[in-house]
Amino acid sequence: MFNFFKKKTKSEPEMVKQDRGILVFANTSEVIKAENALKNAGWEIRVMGPPPEIRSGCDLVIEFPLIEEMSIVRRLSEINLKPTQIVPVTSVLLEPVSLCQEKEFGKYIMVRAANMKITVDRETLLIVNISGGGCPDVPYLAEQMVSKHLSDAPQPRDIGYTLCAYALQIAYERVKEICLA
Amino acid sequence: MFGIIGAIPNEKFPLIAGTVLLEKDRLVIGDENCAISRGTPAMIAAAVETLKYLGKPSPFCFLVGDIGNGKGCIRLYKHLAEHLPETAYATLTFHYFQPYVVSFQQVMDAINTMSVRPTLIADAGFMYVAKMSGLATSFDLFTPDAGELAYLADEEAPHPFYTRGFILDEKNYVPDLIERAYLHNNASHYLLVKGETDYIANRDGIISIVNNPVEEVLEAIGGTGDTLTGIVSALIASGMEISSAATMAARVNRLAGCLAKPTPATQIIDIIRHIPQALEEVLGKEDLQGL
């Protein structure tokens, strides 16, 4: 179980684990259910012992490709599973960005979350631009969402796959709060 | 030869390698074509316009369709790892891509076996994975925005989404973040930090600052960072020294944005159309002999 903390060998690059994340669940049976679902769907995941900092009674976590967090969470929600925590492997103290920054350009409002920005025309409630990000679903999300009404646009969490999409979802929810209040 | 590697936001777009052309508002490569929207298509279009202005051939592109599930990118990573060693590129620009560390390391291993190591430029997903892999210093130029720079500066963040709040704070000015990114070896040899003010820097500090003309709404327009990467890549591929190319590209990109008389609803194609005029105004006065 504690191989997770084994000393790195020379053949194991220093930063190689930076693309992995940990799914923490309320109990072991949820971990097993999640493991079966994710492995059956083809994800490369591993059931591991949790690092001490996030032990909360459960002695198992799932290590997963961090970049695919969004689609993994969506798959789990389809079987009514919700992780209690999702954290990167390299630092269990890191939290996802939750802070949104807002900027007004006349009748337009832009909301930024992490590396993603969404801009809405406050008069028409049309999404006029999406910028930022670096994962390949960002241009795809922009194509699907730009020029759509804020209420009718597909949500990033429904059609995106990556952490960039997750960040855009946060910005999208915030701009909806502001514009549809 | 100048190569570009990136993803097209269309799941059906095949893995393709070839010289790209600009026809009306579409990119054409072999029998395939795609709209010039934000992302890699915008970057390529800006590069093509710049090369055309300089009288140089269009870039050779390695492209694949991917909408974020990584399926296309995995195939292209494999293709690159197998075929890059046989090729000779003076400049390679890496753009929107799924950041898979192990596959990326295989591509870098392949680059290390090329007879002449190309100048390496990365933006977007490839910049993320370069840092994730601990290979940022293998690159010659990154083109981050302020948020992405904060990610480079945060030695613990595995993705911009996890950049720690104290680094994202606006009180942390760009020069401090640049210094911190170099301190932890998470930056390329040169940085072109795009934003309200553009900074060109290296490990020794800020080399130049470009903040004119000012068009604040460009921040909202998707693709303005992509066009900057396309312009600077084309200038470097044409033989311009990296820091000069970065300074020129920042001026050209800002001017093209300004000439488009943008609003926050302007689309990137409207700015790309003004790149030739901006190039003429910025580079027309320069001595371009030797490029």
UniProtKB/TrEMBL annotation, chain A:
Which positions, given as ranges, span the membrane?
none
- GO molecular function, a single term: ATP binding
Q: Which residues form the DUF8182 domain?
A: 101-179
Instruction: Give the signal sequence positions.
Output: none
Q: Which residues form the Putative Se/S carrier protein-like domain?
A: 21-87
Q: Which InterPro entries match?
A: DUF8182, Se/S_carrier-like
Name of the molecule in the record: Carbohydrate ABC transporter ATP-binding prot ein, CUT1 family
**Annotated source species:** Peptoclostridium acidaminophilum DSM 3953
Automatic annotation (TrEMBL), chain B:
Q: Which Pfam families match?
A: Carb_kinase
- Cited PROSITE patterns: YJEF_C_2, YJEF_C_3
Tell whether Electron transport is among the UniProt keywords: no
* Positions of the YjeF C-terminal domain: 220-282
User: In this entry, which stretches build a coiled coil?
Assistant: none
Q: Which UniProt keywords apply?
A: Plasmid
rRNA-binding found in the keyword field: no
What superkingdom heads the lineage?
A: Bacteria
One GO term in the molecular function aspect is: hydro-lyase activity
What InterPro entries does the record point to? Carbohydrate_kinase_pred_CS, CARKD, Ribokinase-like
The name on file for this protein is: YjeF C-terminal domain-containing protein
This protein's species is Peptoclostridium acidaminophilum DSM 3953
Lineage of this protein's species?
Bacteria, Bacillati, Bacillota, Clostridia, Peptostreptococcales
